[in-house]
Amino acid sequence: MTAAAQGPVTAAVLVIGDEILSGRTKDKNIGYIADYLTAIGIDLREVRVVPDVEEEIVAAVNALRARYDYLFTTGGIGPTHDDITADSVAKAFGVGIGEDPRAISMLLERIRPEDLNEARRRMARIPHGAELIANPVSKAPGFRIGNVIVMAGVPAIMQAMLDEVAPTLSTGRRMLSATIRADAKEGDIAAPLKAIADAHPDVSIGSYPFSEDGRFNTNIVVRSRDAERLEAVRAAVAEMVARLHAAP
Amino acid sequence: MTAAAQGPVTAAVLVIGDEILSGRTKDKNIGYIADYLTAIGIDLREVRVVPDVEEEIVAAVNALRARYDYLFTTGGIGPTHDDITADSVAKAFGVGIGEDPRAISMLLERIRPEDLNEARRRMARIPHGAELIANPVSKAPGFRIGNVIVMAGVPAIMQAMLDEVAPTLSTGRRMLSATIRADAKEGDIAAPLKAIADAHPDVSIGSYPFSEDGRFNTNIVVRSRDAERLEAVRAAVAEMVARLHAAP
Predict the structure, then answer these.
(1) Which positions 166-205 of B are in contact with A (Cβ < 8 Å)?
(2) Which among A34, A49, A115 has the least Cβ separation from residue B22?
(3) Could you tell me which of A70, A86, A69 has the C-alpha nearest to residue A78?
């Protein structure tokens, strides 16, 4: 990682693909990227899913790249007619796009020259000014232009591309978290939990209900970039929960 | 379902919750709602995930409700301090919010009067003018205001609420689909597939790579609301694939 930035570093994810919106494919990338960015000190602030429609992709890319430090896109960079992400990103930036000789070289590491047909050459179409992101899985590269990182939709390839690009990103102080299992329903801890939250406005406290063996339960998650503040609030929550269970 | 609408009926989903963006919770609602809406004849056109921040929720609700026939939200309607969806939706609509006696009655079906504390009463805060959506799982209702349907984030509860509200929705002609397994790499079918797509601009053809036993393969998905058009294009794709494998 490059040196930690002063303030939080923010990001958005844009998932591109009709197949996610139709339900045919269940997205596995959002949760993976969320975990990954949290672990390296980048705050994921927004996710959008849009169809394979140029104007929708262009509008979402421009809205999100203006608002966050990084935008990660997944999907739409293969060789078929419905893969329009590279062209849409070029349009969003107002730059040209063409066959990139570096990308052709990468494709030729895996594809025999006689198999490098017109469709496969489409995977070497890269917006002008972009840097390539190596794809150790199937060679066809992703790319980065400005603060936008364009990756494949196939999870194994997306994950490899994220590993490639991560060392080049600015990161902030990592968000730390602690989870306290309440063994109580949300409605029974809400008031004392709100009192703790009000007393510690600098620390984020989330309450997440779940059911187990047919009974509702709650996980309380405390989050802070400051280890001492985290521990202070974690201890306050744990004490509150213990008090609750000790009550007659 | 009410009578089928003339044109397609469109929808967006707004997932509300810090826990999805941090990666702590993996969303299971987007894929479920996508499948569900496709099956009843509503086109899911966009998904957004935003944090538990009022101005973000208000902005997303207003952007999405203006653009699509329906907006489904998940998350943020529990009893704790971080559950701010109902207040945010009221703000988005510019209406008041208060304790709804119908919602209190629903809560009392499950909660003893002496346990109906201030926190649990928060779950009865409903924007003025909203209709309630029954919650057969844990009683605390969702609600519908205008074209916005506000549901819980816990999957079992969200699913029950979707079942409650679905019969009241307008639906369009169902999108039909057929999948052809190519047993070929995308790059080998892209050109003939594009020719079929160009010849049938009224039918959507998607190409989805996957890997199996370490080899890349492709599913081709044909989608149309017209069963005859679907079958014509499905047959054309299947014939193309057969021709490809028959080639020397």
Answers:
(1) 175, 177, 186-191, 193-194, 197-198, 204-205
(2) A34
(3) A86
3-state secondary structure of A31: helix
**From residue B85, how far is each of A117, A205, B4, B38, B92 by CA, in Å?**
51, 16, 31, 26, 10
What does residue B10 show for φ and ψ, rounded to 5 degrees?
-115, 160
Instruction: Judge whether B105 is closer than 8 Å to chain A, CB to CB.
Output: no
Q: Considering only CA atoms, which of B182, B139, B14 is closest in space to residue B89?
A: B14
Contact A38, A115 (CB under 8 A): no
Cβ-based contacts of A79 with chain B (< 8 Å): 186-187, 190
pLDDT above 70: residue A4: no
Contact between residue A96 and residue A127 where contact means Cβ atoms under 8 Å apart: yes
**A96 CA to centre of own chain:** 27
* φ, ψ for residue A4, nearest 5 deg: -65, 135
Q: Which stretches of B7-137 are assigned E, i.e. beta strand?
A: 9-16, 42-50, 70-74, 97-99, 125-127, 131-133
Whether pLDDT at B133 is above 60: yes
SS3 state of residue A41: coil
Q: Which fold has domain A9-168?
A: Molybdenum Cofactor Biosythetic Enzyme; Chain A (3.40.980)
Residues B6, B40: contact at Cβ < 8 Å? Answer: no
Could you report the per-residue pLDDT of A65-95, keeping only the tens digit for each? 999 999 999 999 999 999 999 999 999 999 9
d(C-alpha A8, C-alpha A3), whole Å = 13
- Answer yes or no: do A44 and B23 touch at CB < 8 A: yes
What number of residues does chain B have?
248
SS3 content of chain A, % helix, strand, coil (to 5): 40, 25, 30
Residues A179-203, mean pLDDT to the nearest whole number: 95
Instruction: Give the whole-angstrom CA distance, residue A193 versus residue A118.
Output: 61
Tens of pLDDT, residue by residue over B54-86, are 999 999 999 999 999 999 999 999 999 999 999
pLDDT in tens, B186-238: 999 999 999 999 999 999 999 998 888 888 899 999 999 999 999 999 999 99
Nearest-neighbour CA in chain A from B36: distance (Å): 8
Find out if CATH 3.30.70 is the number for domain A176-246: yes
Task: Kindly list the domain boundaries of chain B, sorted by start residue.
Answer: 9-168, 176-246
